[in-house]
Design brief:
The protein is mostly helical. About 60% of the residues lie in helices and about 0% in strands. The termini are far apart.
């Protein structure tokens, strides 16, 4: 069997790629299945959101910020500190942090559905619910309250739970509003990128 040069080069490249990938020399994102109990975790589709989705989120964020300007609010703590950076966590901890962050966001924004902002929040809430449903497959039940949450992750989860109990609705609304684009463009992308997020 005679091979032409182009076919031979393709075969060599294909063989070289598979060897390098199998020995770990080429960065290939690994799925987030490292936690026992996590089932069918497929987050790579969220590495970037569509321009239409981002536009809907921007419209919602602007409307929320405008409504917050009309209210008198004073907050003692913030659930999402400036140091909140999922890259500081282990790859397997990141979905748990994002799940808590997204859970609080959905809970707080969900209370606004029957307000004048309901129509503006409709599509963003639908998208967030969809992301949350996919993310839950990456986090075993009770993972955020069980022995998995240690160190920095435990501190962050505690901070979110404490703020949820102690802060006013206006403070929580301000926190999730100002955190919304970090959640979508940094945290979600980091979880979706798996071990390539460094």
């Amino acid at each position: 069997m005679k091979l032409d040069v182009a076919t031979g080069c393709r075969l060599v490249l294909l063989l070289l790629t598979s060897v390098l990938t199998s020995i770990g020399a080429v960065p290939v994102p690994t799925p987030l299945r490292t936690l026992p109990g996590a089932r069918g975790c497929h987050m790579s589709q969220f590495q970037s959101l569509s321009p239409q989705e981002l536009k809907a989120f921007k419209r919602a964020k602007d409307a929320l910020e405008e409504s917050l300007l009309l209210k008198n609010w004073n907050c003692s703590s913030h659930p999402f500190p400036k140091a909140w950076d999922l890259r500081r966590l282990q790859v397997w901890e990141r979905p748990m942090a994002l799940e808590a962050e997204l859970g609080l966001t959905l809970k707080v924004l969900g209370t606004m559905v029957n307000s004048t902002l309901g129509d503006t929040l409709d599509q963003p809430l639908h998208s967030l619910h969809y992301i949350h449903s996919k993310l839950q497959a990456c986090v075993p039940a009770q993972a955020t309250t069980g022995p998995w949450a240690k160190g920095l992750l435990r501190q962050w989860l505690h901070r979110i739970q404490k703020a949820e109990k102690m802060e006013s609705h206006e403070c929580l609304l301000a926190s999730v509003t100002f955190n919304l684009f970090r959640l979508l463009t940094l945290d979600l992308k980091c979880v979706a990128s798996g071990d390539l997020c460094v």
